[in-house]
């Protein structure tokens, strides 16, 4: 009975709406403005456009010029965007910000990085590879040149696993947590807390104050699957997070210096110091599904991931 009544009501009203060709949505019964096809009036509620991720936006087939959406993972906190007939732009007139599922181009060297949204954090889904390669036998220096190590002094290793950086070089000689450091504009070096936010989002058993192995399976959810960039058995690797951690190894500090543990471990600095000589880092191993959180000497060369600014 209710369906029949609704059908009768629509049949009664539709011809009038089609003839009028204007629609007013309000609580006071006023007519639509003569210049408007749709006139929405309220002092209590707003108008919501469709909300979607950048990936969902890109899936819209042949968008019409003037199409408006709210991109939930674009910019720092989402962005109102309109299709101008050629490209998506934001409604302030500028180029639409990339979404966290889009690739990101570092304008310093035009390298392209995949990105991934994990919880509310936007991470690079690849290790940073920026700077001029120097020999592993030398320390990186505060000389206004971005410097990196490549495992076994081979540029091809940087192309796959990213660069290895001493903490001070990564931080660009600041000690401020969350500093941009060697990250591109709009990105920063993650703090120990931000690493923990990531790991605990993936695994509720992670304890942010634990030293050593941590949680149950966050590492497995972050490690690339297979044995192309991890040695067997690559325990628990599913990469369900999309983080795609690779076992890039490290550059050690003992005299003489050494490169070690490629395919065995992946090690990533945070921007949080434990003390003057050591800082917190997070790592994963081929034999375990959990993550590790430890302090280590700043002179070691570790991998770097950047996280997008949120303010």
Explain the overall architecture.
- This protein has 311 residues and is of the alpha+beta class.
- Helices cover 17% and strands 23% of the residues.
- The chain folds into two domains: 89 residues, no CATH class; 205 residues, no CATH class.
- It has six helices and 20 strands.
- The protein has a four-stranded mixed sheet. The chain has a four-stranded antiparallel sheet with strand order 14-19-18-17.
- The longest helix is centred in the N-terminal third of the chain and has 19 residues.
- The chain is elongated, with a radius of gyration of 26 Å.
Please describe the topology of this protein:
Blueprint: H1 2-20, E1 23-25, E2 38-40, E3 51-52, H2 54-58, E4 68-71, E5 79-83, E6 88-90, E7 104-106, E8 111-113, E9 115-118, E10 121-124, E11 132-133, E12 147-148, H3 155-161, H4 167-171, E13 187-188, H5 192-202, E14 212-214, H6 218-222, E15 250-251, E16 259-260, E17 265-273, E18 278-285, E19 291-297, E20 307-308
Parallel strand pairs: 1-2, 3-4, 11-12
Antiparallel strand pairs: 4-5, 5-6, 7-8, 9-10, 13-20, 14-19, 15-16, 17-18, 18-19
Physical arrangement of strands within the biggest beta sheet: 3-4-5-6
- Overall helicity: 10-25%
Strand coverage percent: 15-25%
**Assembly state (oligomeric):** single chain
Anisotropy-based shape: elongated
How many strands?
A: 20
Largest sheet: 4 strands, mixed
Rg over CA atoms? 26 Å
User: Which stretches are poorly predicted, pLDDT < 50 over at least 5 residues?
Assistant: none
- Quickly count the domains: 2
The helix/strand order is HEEEHEEEEEEEEEHHEHEHEEEEEE
Distance between the termini: 53 Å
Number of helices: 6
Overall mean confidence score, pLDDT: 88
Content-based structural category? alpha+beta
